[in-house]
Amino acid sequence: MEGAENIHNRQIFTVSGKDITRAPDEWRRITGGKHLVPPSAVEPSVIKLYPSNRIRDIRPINYSENDQNSLRRSMSSFMLIAQCFALCPVQGITSPQVQDLRFRWRCLRVVYSIVMTLGMATTFIFTIAFYMKGFFNFETSTTFVFYALGFACCVCFLNLARRWPRLEDLWQRTEQEQIKYGYPKNLHLKINVMSTVTLAVALGEHLLEKYTVISAVARCSDTKAELIELYYLMDYSYVFQFVKFSPPLAVLCEIVNFFASFYWNFIDLFVMVLSMALSSRFRLLNNHLRLALGKVKPEEFWREVREDYNSLSVLTKYLDSCISSIVLLSFATNMFYICQQLYNTLRKSVGTVKLVYFFVSFSYLLFRTVAVSLCASSIHEESRAAKDFLYAVPTQSYKIEVHRFLVQISTDAVALTGCRFFTVNRTLLLTLGGTVVTYVVVMVQFSSPSSGYATNDTELCLKMTARLH
Amino acid sequence: MSGANNSFQRALCPLLVAGQCFALMPVSGLTGYDASTLQFRWLSPRVAYTFLSLVGIFCHLCVCVRELVVADHITYSACAPPIFFAVTFLATCFYLRLATKWPDLVSKWQTVEQTMLKDYGYPRNFERRCKFCAAFMLTASTVEHLMALYSCLLRALPRSTGGLDVVRAFYTSWFEQAFKMTEYALWKSLLLQLSNFLATFTWSYMDMYVTLVSMALTEKFLQFGEGLRAVRGKAAPLKFWREARQLYDNLCCLTRTVDEHISHLVLLCLASDLYFICLQLFNSLKNVKTLYGYIYFFYSFGYLLFRASSMCFCAAAVNEVSQKPRDVLYAVPAGTYNAEVERFIDRVTTDEVALTGFRLITLNRRLILTIVGSIVTYELLLVQQGNGQGSFSEELEYAANITIM
């Protein structure tokens, strides 16, 4: 197209279409004085817009975040916890400067991640071998899914780590462009409280599960050494069927199990935290719009708001491209575990300790699933809240910019997706519920009565001690 | 012209020529550079070969249906052979019908290619990918057929008296039902084997064909998207937007034309994949006893899954890439927003550009999730049904004869 030669090189825009070749003082007025290098010094040729989704803007920002509610500051301690468990091995995660974030293959954290991935993969292979030996049924498939999830989680987060610096960079740029809206209130506090509560409950649930197994085993063993050995043989039968029992191996198994349990809880928490951060930015935009409700505003105002909305939409799409596999993992495993737990309860009668554990575990799982769905769908909800304000714009103000904004809000699907298979909105929660109920009803209707587990104590003890010798 | 090998006609040529060896797409002049070399004539050896193949598959179908009718009860696995031959019969008919319209479709495609040639050229490396896909499919199908022959041979060996009698035992064991209706003769068994091989090949050819045609469409949209992304956030004149919009319109029309021609094939493909995946999962590891049985089962099931998923993902990609211009359009700076951009946005956001299955279903990513959900649901129901039935090993043995098990 020969029109490409006539592109006006004089004007410079950001990727979201915002014109930045204004006079420096005008720019400063718009950005509230807290911005970077005035763009008059920037050459048009410096702009490079690469194909294939690489979003690169004018020049790097060497900006140290002062506000603790900015994403960099709010997420630093959260990501540090993740890195203690070998997830997302990015260097410079606690620095207030986004420029310090770097992913390099040859560093200790990456090695730690890869070691953990291999550990998960090995345990996963053990479970596959165990089930091929003939122990496969729906009730015991949880372990299989558990370690598959752990392995997939490690791989997904390693992938995410490669793109994490670019994501934070884009987020910071967007925050800077929209500095006149300020920062979300108490984001830092909310993230910390949410992660503390979730991880504490998760730890409690994990310990309660270990307690149920130990108390079941304790009835059959006499000495402490026997108790420990029996416990490992029971709980990690997929490993000790093939390998002889030894204490170092037992410790390794316990560590891998603990990490996998953390991952199971962490992916939900991670999705919740990021969704909360993003939807709070949409909320800031909506608050700004709410102040203009019913008032006559110049077209300039609507143009700026539209461009800010577009920047947030671009940010959401980039975030989605980074974490969509994690979202898919989270929803898929939650659905599987809910089905599995419901199926188990509706078919078997269990002892008291197990019943208590089941109630705690199931209600926590249900609560977590609902929380993730609601948090993640809040992005979609918040992004559409501005529609009401646009529909109520007075006639004098309704010009091309408002129309363009309305078209974009109505047609652009701003939401997280699960690998582009489904969009995370409120309807998804209903669909999930319907699917779970359907599958559980089908399985319970047609399954044969449970015959596997001996409910008699002495029989159980005999079976267990037989494995010991 | 360099790169002309990446044009639609040249790139798809290896796959179509391979199909012609198996009596599909009887069009002459496939190896030319221009659509004018393509010609379909009813009185040609290729069409005669296709008709022979149709007759052979129809014979198989009759035999299977008769077997089903005289059986005591109809089970899910027992339906597999008739469905297999019915699907391949329909597929061959569809390809014959497509062949009559193929020159027209390729010339329409070429028109769009010519308009994009100056600014975009041809897609990069497309020809290499097509060649690789065609070679892979041929190899994989042949290996699968040979494995089925081998498992049949293993079953036939105990029944033979040694020497050349192995051939007789092999064919009578493979086409047991056919040789109940008629006397054994070597020429009959060779014909039956040929039509069986053609049917097996057609079964896997469908998926690859839809995959490659979707890939060709996707490449065109991707080229267009790249050109558009170069002006992202920049000010471009009205003329640029008008030409871009018109080119997008042409691409949408091309998608609709392609969809009109192949939508019934896509639906047939999807339905047969769904059925056979459910069947394979259902049969899964229950009746496998030997190591060779394990290998054969995993290979055949893995190949089926690979084909089905590559077809679904490639066909869904057409819908995805058609939405890519949105990002650029939303970011058009305020000073250069004009009527052309507005028309372009309206077209992109309101028109659904995708391949369909006979216009009943739209092929996008959401459909893949629905299909997986359907497979899981049907599997659960089948497993429960199967628990209440006796052995059905006989139907399974015949199913093994047609390389399904």
TrEMBL record, chain A:
Gene Ontology biological process terms from the UniProt entry: sensory perception of sweet taste; signal transduction
What membrane topology term does the record carry? Multi-pass membrane protein
Keyword Transmembrane helix belongs to the record = yes
GO (cellular component) term, any one: plasma membrane
Location(s), subcellular: Cell membrane
Which family does the similarity line name?
Answer: Belongs to the insect chemoreceptor superfamily. Gustatory receptor (GR) family. Gr5a subfamily.
The protein in question is named: Gustatory receptor
Organism field: Zootermopsis nevadensis (Dampwood termite)
From TrEMBL, chain B:
Q: Does the keyword Cell membrane apply?
A: yes
Among the GO biological process terms of this entry, one is: sensory perception of sweet taste
Subcellular localization, as worded in the UniProt entry: Cell membrane
Q: Which GO terms describe its cellular component?
A: plasma membrane
- Asked if the Swiss-Prot or TrEMBL record annotates the protein with the keyword Membrane, the reply is yes
Q: What domain of life?
A: Eukaryota
Its placement in the membrane is given as: Multi-pass membrane protein
Output the InterPro entries linked to this UniProt entry. Gustatory_rcpt
Citing just one GO molecular function, the answer is: taste receptor activity
Looking at the UniProt entry, the stretches that span the membrane are 47-69, 76-98, 265-282, 294-318
Query: What's a Pfam family this protein contains?
Result: Trehalose_recp
Q: Which UniProt keywords apply?
A: Cell membrane, Membrane, Receptor, Transducer, Transmembrane, Transmembrane helix
Family per similarity comment: Belongs to the insect chemoreceptor superfamily. Gustatory receptor (GR) family. Gr5a subfamily.
**What is the protein's known function?**
Plays a role in the sugar gustatory response.
Its protein name is: Gustatory receptor
